[in-house]
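Recap slide: Triosephosphate isomerase, sequence and predicted structure.
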Amino acid sequence: MDQSIKAYIKQLVQEAIEESAGSLNNLPSSTGRKQYVIANWKMNKNIQETLDFLQQIKEGNGVEVVVCPPAPLLYPAKLYVQGQKKEIQIGAQNVHQEDKGAYTGETAASLLKEIGCSHCIIGHSERRQYAQEDDATVNQKAKQALKRGLTPVICIGETLEQKQQDQTEKVLTKQILGAMDGMDVSQVVFAYEPVWAIGTGESATAEEAQRIHGYIRSVLEYLDVQNAEKVSILYGGSVNENNAQEFASMTDIDGVLVGGASLQVDSFQKIIAVFAKGA
C-alpha cells in the first residue's frame, strides 16, 4: 500500500475511533474471495411472481447468486430452489440484532437460518434512513447473523451532500470501523452503495467505483492485512445489464448488489452472465 494512502487511512481511522470510542480487533480466520450477484427485491413481487422468476433463472456458473425477496417470500422461495436442486441462495433483506423478545414486526437470525437463508443484507441506506439504523446497530446485527450462520452483506455508502463535500472516504471509514468492531473482516461481504446512486438511474463510473473499492480494501487491510484481499466487495447503485460489464472488469469489484434490474429475469440473467465470464 502507498505510504501516503496508509497515513491518510490511519488518520481517518484514528478520528473515527475517537468519535465512536470503538476498538479494532483482529481475529484469526479466512475465507475465499467469491464473485456475487445479489438481487435485492425490496418490497416487490408476490408468491407466484417469485416462483416464476426462480423457475426461469439459471445458475451462476461459478458466481454466487443470491435472491433476497420480501420476508414472507423467503420460505416458499427456499422450498422451490431446494426442490428444483438449483444452486441459488436465498437471503434476507434485514435481521434483528436480538434473537428473541418483544420486537413487533422483526425477524430473528435464528429463524432466517431455520427457513434456509444463507445471507442477510445489513445496513442498507434505506434502513439507515427509514429505520434510523446506525453503525452500532449494523455491528450488532452482523454479529447476530454470524452467530446463527448467516453471511452478513454489509452496505456502506455516502450521500450526495457528503460526496460534494469530499467526505466520502471519511464516511466510509467510519462506517467500516463501526460495522467491524469486534469482528473478523474475512467473515463478511461488503457492498458499496453510494446513496446518491440508489434508485436514481445514476451510477458511479466503473473507474470511480474501482477507486472507492480500492480505498475500502485499504481500510480492511489496515484492520487485517492477512485477510483484506480475501474479502468480497460488491458495487450497488443503479446497476443494470448495460453497465455491468464495466463494473465486472474492475479488479476490486467482486460482484454487484442489484435493485430494480433484478426484478426482470432477462436483465438479471444478463448481469449474472457478465460476472460468470470472469469467475
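Residues 3-20 form the longest helix (18 residues).
The longest strand covers residues 151-156.
(End of recap.)
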